[in-house]
Amino acid sequence: MKTDYGKLGRESMDSLKGTSKQAAVVQARLLAEIMRRNCDTVYGRKYGFGEIETAAEFQKSVPLSVYGDYEDYILQMIAGEEKILTEEPSVYYCISSGTTGDAKYLPLTERDLNIQYIYAFGLPFGMVREYYGDLPEDEVFGKIFQVGEFAKTTMENGVMNGIRSGCIYQWLDREEQFDAGDYCVPKEVLFPDTLEDLLYIKVRFALEERDLHAIHGVFINRVAGVMDYIWRNWEMLLTDMEHGSVDARVPLSPQWREYAKRKLSANPLRAQELRLLDYETLRENMVKKIWPKIRYVLAIGGKSFAYYTEKMGGYAGDIPIHSYAYAASEGIFGIAEKMDQPDRYILFPEAGFFEFLPLAEEQKGNKRPFFLWELHVGERYELVFTNQSGLYRYCMGDVIEVVGWYRQAPIVQFCYRKNQVINIAGEKSNQEQLAQAVQRFALHMHCEVVGYCVQEDVSGDLPRYLFYLEGTNMDRSGAEEILDDCLCRVNYEYQGCRKMNEIGRARISYLQAGSFGRYEERLAKSGKQMGQNKQVCILDSSEKKQFFAAQTTELGA
Q1: What is the pLDDT of residues 242-254, one digit of tens each?
Q2: Which of 301, 326, 501, 523 could link 334 by a cystine bridge, Cβ 3.0 to 4.6 Å?
Q3: Rounded to whole angstroms, how far apart are CA atoms 386 and 371?
Q4: Domains and CATH numbers, the chain
Q5: What is the signed CA dihedral for 190, 191, 192, 198, rounded to 10 degrees?
Q6: Kind and range of the H or E element at 30?
């Protein structure tokens, strides 16, 4: 069934406007429903869900939790036992990205899927519709280039699993509501039977679609990587398009190579049209040059993906980049406040029950989180989340700042992950600060940073930060001193540790070109779907450290 994106977007916007007008009432009602519906589950009986009538009673009766508190329950559910965490059965298991350790399996119910469909899938189209005002719908919505692929994988019990962003597509496909005709990439490539990276095939299909209207991805680093791939392999792609061939250098399995040869026939006219573009200036505003009708790019970016967001901005030119959602494997939390402005997200009152642990209070030993209606603009909180799929008072580890209100719903900025810090002497440099330091460094050095990551280095007289940098135009002269100064400017605790000679000067190891791309390929081969890979920042495992150490080069990038 073909999706009416304009209608879906309008309905989703109406839903957000309605619930945000009475966010506190919606939150209280949702919590009561979750307690009532799940009172006869194993978890519900353990913590007395049937006796809980208020949010305050909920906080007193149910403890704060982390993933480890659910592992045994989830294993029972996967084994086929019912009514463990929720009355409603799980229809999907979200695989976390494993940012903080091994991959986690998080259950997802039909109710949560419906919420995700309205807000995470439908609402971005509503934002696009409002952004373009009175333009006719057929000029706003059309063919979509979905850069990710969502492999058709299932648990041993037959329940689907994969990344959170892919569940909607698989769910719609199951319900026969997914129309692959909306996408320039065929259905069998969007839902492959293997976890192989099919970037070449997707790009070939996309380049042949002149009337493309949108590019969709999960994270902006993946979308920027696709644009890099097009630019770096321009001649090869056009030659293959002209002759209907598949270059021998393309890393495809025999199965998919045969598919590409069969489905990607010669298109000399389109190849000739693209050859008329000046390659020397192609990179600037490349998206619009290749696809003149394109209206927007949809991908999570912003401050946490600063370099990839900036890079994609160069490719996109004046095409708006919609950093559409604040989300994780545990849930969909919010939508970008405005189409072309990242880092400000309206929390959905229907997404789940929200609590907020004030950082200042936590430091004093007060563990009583605030409710949505108790928040203060300008304050930072750790997000605590109760969803409709079996997570109760789950500590996300996300630090957010309240920056405003949309009716009664808070507008928040994601700041950093609490457990994603590098800490040698109490300085605690988080992802936000590291991103700022590298951004300052790139501006000062007049270079482009393709990707970066950092770890503690204890090989010298003093422990220090070791940065792995991949980029272009990177002059090594004085680079380490400049990067260290940038760290001092964004983190005063780091500056103090340097002055006290507790931390040595930051060190830089330069990576070979394509190192971060090879890292993604490695993850894909290990069984992780490409769309779930977030930007690598702090190297928190020996495996990651060994990989990037092996990518260094004396020549730099």
Answers
A1: 999 999 999 899 9
A2: 326
A3: 12
A4: 114-325 (no CATH), 421-549 (3.30.300)
A5: 20
A6: helix 23-37
